[in-house]
Every structure is written in C-alpha cells, then in structure tokens.
C-alpha cells in the first residue's frame, strides 16, 4: 500500500480510512467510504458549510434536492439556506446555518443520511483463462505481469523476425555492391529476369529474396552515399537483433523492458493524485460533538415527541399553575415525559410488547411550546401501536435485568443482555396475554423491592427474587391480584429510605415512607395506599423518590409544573395529601415524572410516566409562581390488606 495507495477518483473527494482498501487488496472485495470536501466558514456570526468536491458518481442536483427534503421533513434542523454557486471555476454548494447551529453536527448528519458521504464498492473481477475470477491485489499483479511478459515476448519475436528479414535483404545488397561489375555483367548477359536471378543465386550463394531485391535495386543505390546508408542500416539491425535475442533469452532483461515501458507511461500520462486518503478511519460519532446535558423528552398521545433542555423548566412553588410544556393539537394530550441525558440509550417499549432503541440526541430538539416530531418518523411503529414505557440506560453491556409490569398486574424479569442487539424494526420484549398491555419497565441489579400501585389506590410491595428470570418472549407471572374493574397505573422500584409519592387526577399528592409498606408475597391483593374518592379522582401515578428529587406534573392542557419533593409534607398512608397543581372542571392531572437529583452511585437514570388517556384537551399560556396555601386532607380509614 506504500506504492498502490488506493482508488483515485476523477471527482476527487476523500477516502476515509485504509481498512476497506486493505480488505480489497487482500481478498479482492471491499468497500471504501468516500466523503465530499467541505469547509466551515463564519460570516456575521453565522456559520456556513461550503462543499467543493463530491464523491464519485454523486449527482449534484439530486444531492441538493435530497438535503432540501431532509430540511422540509424537519429531520435536519439548523439550516437556514441552501444554494448552488457552481460556475466555470468549479463546484460550490453553500449551506448556511442558523445562528446557534453546530456545523460539525450538521455535517455528521449529512455524512450519515445523504450522499455527501458515499460508499464505493470494490470487486477485482478478472478473466483468467476465459473464466471470471475474483483476485486479490497480489494475484492481480502476478496475472498482469504474466500477461505483459506474453505481450512483450510476442512483440519481441515479431520485431526480431522483421529485423532478421531486413538484415537478410541488406546482406544480399551489400554482396551485390561489393561485386557490382560482375553483377552487371550477369544482368547484361541474361535474356530473362528468371535467368538473371538464378545466375545471381548460383554465383554468390544468395537466397531467392536476396536475388529479387538485387534485381529490384535502382541504379542510384550504386552511389557511394547510398552504399554507406545500407551499411549503417545493416549495422543497426545487427545491434537490434542482438538486443531482441537478449530479451528473449533473459527474463531479467524482459522484466526490465516492462519496467521501462511502465515508467514511460507514467511520465507521459501520469498526473497528480486527486483523491485524498485519511489514514485513520473517521467514524461518525455524534456523541463526541454533542454536549452531555440533562434533557426532558415529552411524548403525546398522538405520538409527537420532542427533546428540550431540562433547565428550561425552572423549579416553582408547589400549587403553582406552571409553564406551558408543549403545544398540543386540540385532540391531543401529553402522555409521557421523562428526564434523561443526551448520551443515554432510550429503550421504547410499545403496547404490543416490542422494544425499539434510540440515542436521546436522536430525538429532535424543539422549542418549549413546540408540538415536536411525529414518532413514526423516528421509530417504525404500526398504526395501532403506541409507546407505553421508556427506559434510559447508559451502557447496554452492563449486568442487570429488565422487569416488566402490565396493566393487568403481570410481571416478568429478563436479563438485559437479551436486549443488547435491537434491530431498527424493533424486537419482541414480552409476549402479552390477550387483552393486556405493557404498563412499565424497570432496570434492576437483581435484588430490588418492587411496588405496584393501582388506579383504585391499592399497592403491593415484593422482592424481585420472587420472579424467576425468564426468556425475552415469555409472558410473565401474576404480580398483583386485581379487584374487579381495577388496573395497574404505576410500577416502580421501592428504595429503602425513600418515600412513595402518589398523585391523583385532581392534583392532590402525598409522600409516605417506603418503610410503611411491608413486603408481601407476589400475587396478593395488596393494601390501600391512597383513599380514592370523587374529590381526588383516580390515581394517575406513583413514584419512589427522595427529598432531593423534584416532581414534574403535566395536565390535560399540556401545562407543566416542576416542584421540589421536599416541599411536599411527609404523611401517613391513610391521607389524601396536599394540593400540588391546580385543576378545574375541564383540566386534570394526566402525567407525572420524577426528576432525579445527582447521585454518587452509578446506575441508569430512568424516567417514565403514567397517565390516564381519556382526557379533554386545551392549552394554557399563563404562569403563576405564587406560593399556594397548603391543604392537607386526612382520613381515618383503615388499611385493607389481602390474605397472602
């Protein structure tokens, strides 16, 4: 590869890495990644990308159209203008960026999703003895060299035959010139040409061709000058014949001739290399160019998803009206919101029991009140398929388990390694029973206490060791024995030392120490954790939390409020709680999410939300940061506990 560096395309460009070239040289098959030449310029505080070279066989007009389509479909944001400034001096595509756009991130997107970077396949297919064969570079060179040997040998044999034939004629002419008087006498004494030819052949031992050449010789050749020319030509031919015989007699000399001819071709037709080769593979790694930061990802019932910086939602006093989290269509509501980091893996679990994987930064960034991007443009969901749970995990190779819970109270535990290779079209995560759907999924280390909460206010807490590890497509076992008409609305890990925060549809919420929920056997009916009434409405969600965490609530109008958990008074299990968010006859709390405070220990940070999806909709724009009077509702109802 020091001599044959790699393909050189007429349209220039840059080959990224040498591994593909090496593979092609070693096996006869390979592929190289060819990237356009681009420069980033800055003007008036804005960046622009200038493309001056394209990969081989990429059509410029179609490329520009393709980039424009990505912008129109909002798959690619940050571009404000796209134009072709090519002229007779060369090609020039200008991509102007918005003020806060990152040119490197946009370039990486173009490399991955357009022909700004293309893959060029290599196959060294040749006809060897009239049979097609794929040759590696060494075999190709050996066959080429052997062919050149044959060509040069045949040419040398041909040239030697011509030189010897010409020398033979010249030798006869020289004999005639040396005996010119006798030759003239024979010609004058012969009645016919044939007689003269035979006489010359007999007298001087000439061949038929030599005798004919003498008879055809013009009188002017008899001059001394012409004789000298014949002598010189004969001497040159003898040198040439000797050289040609040396070539035929020595392979080393033959190879030298081939080398000299190749050098001559190089000097005559060679030009400067156009295609550059980057020695090191430049893998597109978005994470190197995207800062790691906390983000809030919001998903609506109609499937619109967006990403926004978590700092956008400043913490407010409990009881406030909040700020608008996103704009929703008239017939849409926010169904899920979770907090994660831009570099985390997001596992999307659907109502059909499938799982899809994305990086958090692959979710399009949007403004606070924007409705976002339809999820079907990112994940290939079926028409009747919806996202039921999302898990955020930093490292898919770590040891651990995924524990599933369905709306009918079925639980299942499967090793995380079973989900390490998730295809773009998804993977079966759990085999759901008829009439059931997935509620939530949790990552565990293998010995966690789990807690399930129902919409009628019942809960059950048990250790995950009561669930045996099952295969990826198993359906699971009973986690809670539901009462008639009841359904699970929340599934979480019960962390000792933390509290269980329960929120109702009317905006009431309470937190109770996890220690007040004793361990039960899996499959029991559970005990009362929240007294549901017409005033409270059904439970919409429950989470295990610490005082350092924060709570985010979203109502049916798409309005969000962020509250410090420490502001919510700790109460016993038999209370209704305090007012966390104002509601009205037309608005209800539909979603809750815990915002995790910074922890010292390692582990995935996962944020899911649960919601009632039968709510009317609307939009609030107003914000109220005022402190609200605390209302506490206490009831003396005794706990109802199941037999185990």
What's the short version?
The chain is of the alpha+beta class and 644 residues long. One of its GO terms (cellular component) is cytoplasm.
CATH class of the largest domain: Mainly Beta
The CATH topology of the largest domain comes to Neuraminidase
- Low-confidence segments, given as residue ranges, are 598-644
Number of domains as seen in the coordinates = 3
Number of strands: 35
Helix content: 10-25%
**Beta strand %:** 25-35%
The description of the largest β-sheet is: 5 strands, antiparallel
User: Averaged pLDDT, please?
Assistant: 83
CATH architecture of the largest domain: 6 Propeller
Global outline: elongated
* Main sheet strand line-up: 30-27-28-33-35
Helix count, DSSP H or I runs of 4 or more residues: 10
Look at the helices and sheets and give the structural class. Answer: alpha+beta
> What value does the Rg take, in angstroms?
43 Å
Organism: Youngiibacter fragilis 232.1
GO cellular component, one term: DNA topoisomerase type II (double strand cut, ATP-hydrolyzing) complex
Enzyme class: isomerase
GO molecular function: ATP binding; DNA binding; DNA negative supercoiling activity
